[in-house]
Amino acid sequence: MRIKVDSEKCSGCHLCEMACSLFHLGIINTEKSAIHIKKDDLDISLNTPILCRQCKEMKCLAGEEATKVLEKKQFIWNRRRAECCPFHALPLLGEKAYHCDLCGGNPQCIKVCTPKAISIAT
Amino acid sequence: MVLDRKIGFINLTKGSIDIQTISLELRRKFLGGRGINMYLLSQSYSPSLDPFSSENPLIFGAGLLTGAFGFGARMNISAKSPESGHLGDSNIGGDFGAELVKSGMSHLVITGKSEIPIYLFINNGKVEIRDAGKLSGLDTVETQKMIRQELRDEKVQVACIGLAGENLVHFAAIRTGLKNSAARTGLGAVMGSKNLKAVAVRGTLDVTVSDPKKYFKYYLQQTKNLLDTKWVQALGRFGTPLLFQYGNATGILSVRNNQRTTVGDQGYALEAEALEPYSTGMLSCFSCPAHCRHRFSIEDGKYQGTRGEGPEYASIGSLGTKLGNLDLQNIIYATELCNRYGLDTISIGSYLAWAIELYQRGIIDHELTGIPLNWGDGETIIELLHRIAQRKGFGDILAEGPLAEKAFGEVSKDYLLNIKNFPIEMTDERLPKSFALGMATSTRGACHMRSRPSLDILGLPVEALRKLYGGPVSNEFASYSGKGRMVWWHEIFNAVCDSLGFCRFLTVFSSPHAPQYKQFSRLIALSTGLLMTPKELRTIGERIYTLERMMLAKDGISRKDDTLPKRYFDEPIPEGPARGEVILREKFDQMLDEYYRLHRWDKNGIPRKETLKRLGLIG
Fold it and tell me: Which chain A positions have a beta carbon within 8 Å of B159's beta carbon?
């Protein structure tokens, strides 16, 4: 299971980021979210939701003695892993990186995405 | 955190910065956003306060729930208006308000004047005054880009002025993003008078939540209800341009300075469907599920290469039919030009329409204008926008707004359709009587958004209206009956929405099923922990509106000023679906009587002492 993205539909509202931080941390902070809207509001280019693609080969864990199944369930990762991600998909704030754990199988971000720019792919 | 957000008092003459907490008592009395702005403005408001003086406070205020899950994330900017000379206040969307909140701030009160061009940078609660010499003369998009470049942070949100604000054009806007504007009442000129080119904000702080699980669940339920309404569904597809078709079909448009109120079949050229070929997608303001904004791109023709956001219905009407202009590409381009210069599309449309009618009637001539003024001449409109922003030639006269009357002569007054020295908009209110009254009583001068009483156009059962408004209201929008009640109700309700940061389009605007006080009360409790009953919220709305009225009363404004342009009373609409409609003075007076009685103001429109006491506005 992963979350797929359709940039053509993203309105750039940031509700997905808000929902992610609220579900995981009990606060609202768009900087502390595993999903991030890449947006240039001074241009008419598309907004693009970016988040972990749930790769089978987890290059983000390169050089680590980590158990993939367990790490996939973690929301807060570290900077090093984000820097190893070939897609630069993990938002960073300070030394913390935010990783999509799929909310344990019930992604909250999808619930607030009215234009349906993000959806579940199995 | 929501209740911990601060006010920054910034004096640009002294270079001083004083950050203070907001007391719980102030929150309970005024919530945030427009409510606290009005409290702060009332502290220094007086008839002698010169809008361009260093004492005039320019106030930025995010709503209490801006940045949280709610029904919008808006903010208000307020000051004494250089355009009207009275209360100045404008509401703005986009992402700026939410970023201000993330920086730990709720309100900014900017006084004084800098000797050199500067901008403010607010970063996680710290306020810095920075040199803006390099930004002078830049348009509003270039300014935002330059600041992001200088601060090396693409997430910085910037509210700024363009050349119009720098040149003190009396109807200059404050802008953020490609289109969002606090455009009404000339606050961009107040910003320019302070030598303040921009306010930049960046924040990474948490918004804490009282009961996260219940809050999210409740929000999702309410949003679902809202998204099920036809209004929000249509808005999400077409945006506000969908209102143009309605306005044209019912005869409530301003055409040629309200000499007509429809363009009939010619209106197809400006309808929402006509905009679709230019649209490259819909956008949202921060935290909005409705996405009512368009991106556009003009791919061919004279204006090829023009890209941006918009235009909204207000701009299509103001730069289109109001000026007899039916060239959609020209309207899109003119709107974008206004956005770049930082000009209010509504006011500029009104002043241009005024000038063209004066020219049409021979009251002003080529000697004064230096350019022929004809209805529907898109090229002249573009040329005048440049001249106004640059204050060149005839543009320098128009840049003064209503004060251009000095150059146009006494007789010109009858053709400037304004209320409380502030021009009417892209519409004509001789048919919908609730709108007519709302325009007349609005505390910022002619404005349909202060009340926006539109539920009587839906043909709802009378009982449904009685239940909502607490008394009889006719469901015929040409009727005067109960419309005083309707305007009173919406004015109070909207004051609450603006203080919470909520958007008109997501609350009771065109759907009685949209969120109201009860939902607001619950959301406030679950997010902030602050318990406020629906009744308490309504009292806050009354307090804000009456406080605004007190400021106007200081200026000598009373019943005599709660009126409409002469044309509305004296000239029946000559043709079209609203033909024959005119405002009857006696019936208008009856609406005013009902309206004052419900506000508990006296017959002259002055708040009664016992009302002020009840609302805690005097001791």
Answer: none
Q: What is the number of H-type helices and E-type strands within chain A?
A: 4, 8
Pairing of strands B75-80, B87-92: antiparallel
CATH number of the domain residue B330 falls in: 1.10.569.10
Count other Cβ atoms within 10 Å, centred on residue B259.
18
Q: Considering the domain boundaries, does residue B523 fall inside one?
A: no
Cα dist from B63 to B56, B71, B77, B100, B616, whole Å: 22, 11, 11, 11, 21
> B613 by DSSP, 3-state: which?
helix
CA–CA separation, B101 and B425 (whole Å): 32
Quick check: helix, strand or coil at residue B119? strand
CA angle B524, B528, B533 (to 5 degrees): 35
For residue B151, the distance in angstroms to the closest alpha carbon of chain A comes to 16
Give the confidence band of B218 by pLDDT, cuts at 50, 70, 90.
very high
Minimal CA–CA distance to A13: which of B549, B164, B250, B506? B506
CB A97 within 8 A of CB A81: yes
Closest approach of chain B CAs to the CA of A88, in angstroms?
A: 16
Residue type at position B299: E
In a domain, B224, yes or no: no
User: Is A31 in contact with B289 (Cβ distance < 8 A)?
Assistant: no
Domain ranges of chain A: 2-121
For residue A93, what pLDDT band results from cuts at 50, 70 and 90?
very high
| Position B1 confidence tier, pLDDT thresholds 50, 70, 90 | low
Question: Are both B100 and B158 inside the same structural domain?
Answer: yes
pTM: 0.97
What are B442-468's pLDDT values in tens digits?
999 999 999 999 898 888 899 999 999
Helix (H, G, I), strand (E, B) or coil at B9: strand
Residue B244 falls within a domain, yes or no? no
Reduced 3-state DSSP string for B479-547: CCCCHHHHHHHHHHHHHHHHHHCCCHHHCCCCCCCCCCHHHHHHHHHHHHCCCCCHHHHHHHHHHHHHH
With contacts defined as CB-CB under 8 Å, which chain A residues touch B284? 11-13
User: Given CB atoms, is B102 within the 8 Å cutoff of chain A?
Assistant: yes
Q: Please list, in sequence order, all residues whose beta carbon lies within 8 angstroms of the beta carbon of residue B160, skipping any fewer than 6 positions away.
A: B119, B135, B140, B143, B144, B147, B174, B175, B176, B197, B198, B199, B342
What phi, psi does B536 have (nearest 5°)? -60, -40
The SS3 assignment for B423 reads: strand
Between positions 11 and 70 of A, the ones with CB within 8 A of B are 11-15, 18-19, 22-23, 25-32, 40-44, 46-47
Q: Does residue B306 share a domain with residue B418? A: yes
Write down which residue in B422, B451, B484 finishes a domain: B422
Residues B282 and B325 in one domain: yes
Between chain A and chain B, the number of residue pairs with CB atoms below 8 A apart is 92
Same-domain pairing of B173 and B278: no
d(CA B89, CA B583): 28
d(CA B348, CA B402): 11
SS3 labels along B123-149? ECCEEEEEECHHHCCCCHHHHHHHHHH
Angle between helices B462-469 and B483-500 (to 10 degrees): 50
Instruction: Say if residue B412 is in the same domain as residue B451.
Output: no
Residue B564: strand, helix, or coil = coil
CA-nearest of B102, B54, B105, B51 to B78 is B51
Please count the residues of chain A: 122
Q: Which of these three, B186, B202, B218, is where a domain ends?
A: B202
How far apart are the C-alpha atoms of B216 and B609, rounded to whole Å? 43
